[in-house]
Amino acid sequence: MNDSISLEEWRRELMLAARAEKVPDLMRFFKTGPGQYGEGDIFVGIYVPDNRRISKKYHTLPLHQIAQMLDEPTHEFRLAALLALVERYRKARNNPQQREQCVNFYLENAPKANNWDLVDLSTEYILGEEIALGRHLDAIDTLLSSPVLWEQRIAVVAMLTPIRHGMLDLPFDTARRMLTHPHQLMQKAVGWVLREAGKKDPARLRQFINANIAAFSATTLSYATEKFTKEERAALRQLRKTAH
User: Is the separation of the CB atoms in 119 and 113 below 8 Å?
Assistant: First the structure.
């Protein structure tokens, strides 16, 4: 199958699954208005399960074809590229060279995962898996130091995978480095990571919060303490106020 036919078939299948009536809701949900983080993004109304079902079939395409999908202005087409890449990485479990190609491709194209769902549906299953295996650790520093919001979020959300494996040092350190981030999307991501780490080690999460309470935003604290009792959450909110 040549490049043109493969990509056209992929696009055609995706568009058959599009639901135009969902577009206004998606545009509001993903903040596409002037000055918002998703300003100007284009949606066609494809549900994620439909996108995943379709795009998994195209994971064998050459990376340069997946790159063409990732360059599309349509949000769901970029997501399709990332979902295909996740499947490509997953299928290459016994092919270290192909996995390395997938990870390098992902990192090179990280800014194109330019909304929170594009990040969250990809980084755990590619970069996160690598981090859990002790590989590509240097990518975390590079991403956290990037001026691009989405690259920073990739690094933070990737921590969910090592957490699942009981590896908490790097996730806590990553959260500490991003605690004062001004953007709410990052504040939510940091709180999410801390909450998941706390499920593995509740005492360590409480210690971390108490030691860094002055650096917490209200949003991060709310997300991080979601599993705490109502009384604990109220006490920590008050502690944060007095620490500021």
Answer: yes
Question: How many helices and strands, by DSSP H and E, does the chain display?
Answer: 16, 0
Could you report the per-residue pLDDT of 138-192, keeping only the tens digit for each? 999 999 999 999 999 999 999 999 999 999 999 999 999 999 999 999 999 999 9
In angstroms, the Cα distances linking 238 to 16, 213, 216, 221, 242 are 52, 10, 12, 11, 6
Whether the CB-CB separation of 193 and 157 falls below 8 Å is answered with yes
Helices 149-157 and 184-200 pack at an angle, to 10 degrees, of 10
pLDDT in tens, 213-231: 999 999 999 999 999 999 9
Q: How many other CB atoms sit within 10 Å of the CB of residue 148?
A: 13
User: SS3 for 74?
Assistant: strand
Q: Which two tokens stand for residue 40?
A: 């100007």
- The residues near 71 (Cβ < 8 Å, ≥ 6 apart) are 112
Which pTM does this prediction carry?
0.94
Question: For residues 29 and 27, what is the distance between their CA atoms, to the nearest angstrom?
Answer: 6
